[in-house]
């Protein structure tokens, strides 16, 4: 079977499962179905032989098992996997989100920018239309108001005329395309800074939202909501953990222990996602505080610069305008980020199972007489326990007080005790790094007690293999405990789930193990004498000519100044620039 045929088989399996579930009233994503296919194949209880290709009977059995799992709407496991898929498909890290937003903002302008830079306007009417397009570009570039709002258009036009009069369009059109694009970006920032200054001076700012006030109100409220939800999630996880620890002593329980365990996984996964969202909100609050401080400081500097002065060089005020626009863009990015985070947190609630598995009255009854310990309580109880290195001299141990940055080292199983995970049939207990962190094959493990640390360390490879087998039976643990390296064919949800599976060739394994790659460096440096490299060296003759022409232009550039008397004439157009006759390429060539 060729690679293309294998890919077609897998796609047909996914498609048939999707159609079967749809006929039963459930619309499911291909990502969820593809993961379920792999989870069913990995589960040893289903007895799929991954060392051979699928037969027709295997395909039919696989489809039936997948449909049964996907249609079990009461399964905490299915809800946890759905939660994981939803989060990975909708959550974006702070840095990546802000980068994507910048790309989205720029992607809306290429056609308009192209119309401006490619324009060959000659008549007065054409020049007027071109100037109107530049005004629209400035509004959309910095997202200050709507380009269809008359007041916003009027105010932006007045601000633009103060720094770029319509009379300069002819000079603008004579520039190279790259120079036109650069000037458009600079004009957008300068004009946006003028409008923000006018808004702060109560002389304009039509259509500009008061972002600092909005963020100062919404950020604390969002953080409080997430903290409250996280507290309830933690409390539920502690209760389910206490219940599972003592369930063997109970003769009656309305819920099967396996369902309780799956509900615990569901709660722990929700807790992990909420912690990540809360950390982003806290970081966003810090960034907003910094941006508001910088914005206020820059605004005061600008006011001091123009106050009681008749003329001010443009080189003194234009950087302030550009900085104001940049700070404001940063606040807009934080606003969009907060919206994404709150939407994701809200969407997670649709996949919670622990709250509905047992009613509060049932849970209180089952917990009667039991001591519910928090994660902090468990760590405090074992705080005095400590691994004696001499008793396990063959192993390498790290301790917070003696090893630098040990608390920042990522722990395997997300910090849960690997020994308890295996011995207690999948129970999750938080590990305590103060007991001692085991370093085994460049990975670090924490444990819930000293005895657990000793037993795990004595047979580390066996316990690690057993933990993988536990995850095969409970596939939500792959994401919850970050076991993707142990399951090389199971990639994160955000990647193409069916990709590794479609590489199946005739006679090869059903699940193909991906090839691990890493960057490596050699001892010898490429340039051991970095200071001797002349980075300004240029061999291209045409590049040297271009620099020479640029230098000649710069010599003939005149200093510009602002006439502050214009402030009293037009409130919104207070930064009038003196017209400057730009030199053409022909003039430059004559000079040369």
UniProtKB/TrEMBL annotation:
Keyword Cytoplasm annotated: yes
Keyword annotations: Cell projection, Cilium, Cilium biogenesis/degradation, Cytoplasm, Cytoskeleton
Lineage: Eukaryota, Metazoa, Chordata, Craniata, Vertebrata
Location within or outside the cell: Cytoplasm, Cytoskeleton, Cilium axoneme
Function: Essential for sperm motility and is involved in the regulation of the beating frequency of motile cilia on the epithelial cells of the respiratory tract. Required for the establishment of radial spokes in sperm flagella.
UniProt record, GO biological process: regulation of cilium beat frequency; regulation of flagellated sperm motility; sperm axoneme assembly
Keyword Cytoplasm: yes
One of the record's GO cellular component terms: ciliary basal body
Family: Belongs to the CFAP206 family.
Coiled-coil regions listed: none
Record PANTHER family: CILIA- AND FLAGELLA-ASSOCIATED PROTEIN 206
Protein name as catalogued: Cilia- and flagella-associated protein 206
InterPro entries for this protein: FAP206 (IPR021897)
């Amino acid at each position: 079977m060729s690679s293309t045929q294998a890919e077609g088989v897998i796609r047909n399996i996914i498609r048939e499962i999707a159609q079967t579930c749809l006929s039963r009233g459930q619309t499911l994503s291909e990502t969820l179905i593809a993961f379920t296919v792999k989870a069913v194949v990995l589960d040893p209880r289903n007895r799929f032989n991954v060392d051979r290709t699928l037969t027709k009977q295997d395909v039919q059995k696989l489809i039936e098992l997948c449909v049964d799992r996907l249609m079990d709407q009461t399964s905490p496991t299915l809800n946890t996997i759905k939660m994981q898929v939803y989060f990975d498909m909708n959550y974006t890290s702070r840095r990546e989100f802000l980068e994507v937003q910048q790309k989205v903002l720029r992607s809306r302008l290429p056609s308009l920018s192209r119309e401006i830079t490619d324009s060959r306007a000659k008549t007065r009417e054409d020049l007027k239309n071109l100037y109107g397009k530049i005004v629209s570009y400035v509004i959309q570039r910095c997202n200050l108001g709507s380009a269809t709002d008359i007041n916003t258009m009027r105010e932006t036009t007045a601000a633009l005329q103060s720094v770029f009069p319509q009379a300069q369009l002819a000079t603008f059109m004579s520039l190279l395309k790259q120079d036109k694009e650069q000037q458009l970006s600079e004009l957008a920032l300068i004009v946006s800074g003028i409008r923000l200054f006018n808004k702060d001076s109560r002389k304009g700012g039509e259509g500009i939202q008061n972002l600092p006030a909005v963020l100062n109100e919404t950020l604390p409220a969002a953080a409080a909501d997430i903290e409250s939800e996280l507290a309830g999630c933690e409390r539920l996880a502690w209760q389910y953990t206490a219940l599972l620890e003592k369930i063997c002593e109970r003769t009656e329980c309305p819920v099967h222990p396996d369902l309780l365990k799956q509900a615990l996984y569901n709660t722990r996964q929700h807790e992990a996602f909420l912690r990540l969202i809360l950390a982003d909100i806290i970081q966003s609050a810090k960034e907003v505080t910094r941006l508001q401080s910088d914005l206020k400081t820059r605004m005061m500097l600008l006011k001091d610069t123009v106050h009681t002065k008749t003329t001010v060089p443009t080189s003194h005020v234009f950087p302030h305008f550009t900085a104001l626009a940049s700070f404001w863009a940063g606040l807009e990015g934080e606003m969009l980020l907060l919206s994404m985070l709150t939407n994701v947190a809200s969407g997670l609630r649709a996949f919670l199972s622990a709250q509905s598995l047992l009613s509060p009255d049932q849970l209180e009854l089952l917990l009667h007489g039991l001591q519910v310990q928090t994660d902090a309580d468990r760590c405090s109880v074992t705080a005095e326990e400590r691994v004696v290195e001499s008793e396990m001299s063959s192993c390498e141990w790290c301790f917070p007080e003696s090893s630098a940055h040990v608390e920042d080292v990522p722990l395997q199983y997300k910090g849960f005790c690997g020994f308890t995970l295996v011995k207690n049939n999948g129970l999750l207990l938080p590990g305590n790094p103060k007991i001692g962190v085991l370093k085994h094959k460049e990975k670090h493990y924490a444990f819930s007690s000293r005895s657990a640390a000793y037993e795990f360390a004595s047979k580390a490879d066996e316990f690690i293999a057993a933990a993988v087998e536990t995850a095969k039976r409970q596939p939500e643990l792959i994401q919850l405990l970050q076991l993707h390296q142990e399951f090389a064919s199971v990639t994160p949800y955000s990647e193409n789930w069916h990709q590794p599976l479609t590489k199946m060739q005739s006679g090869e394994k059903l699940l193909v193990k991906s090839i691990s790659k890493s960057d490596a460096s050699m001892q010898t440096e490429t340039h051991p004498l970095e200071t001797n490299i002349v980075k300004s060296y240029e061999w291209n003759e045409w590049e040297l000519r271009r620099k020479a022409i640029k230098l000649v232009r710069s010599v003939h550039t005149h200093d510009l100044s602002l006439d502050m008397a214009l402030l009293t004439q037009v409130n919104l157009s207070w930064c009038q620039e003196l017209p400057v006759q730009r030199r053409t390429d022909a003039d430059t060539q004559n000079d040369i």
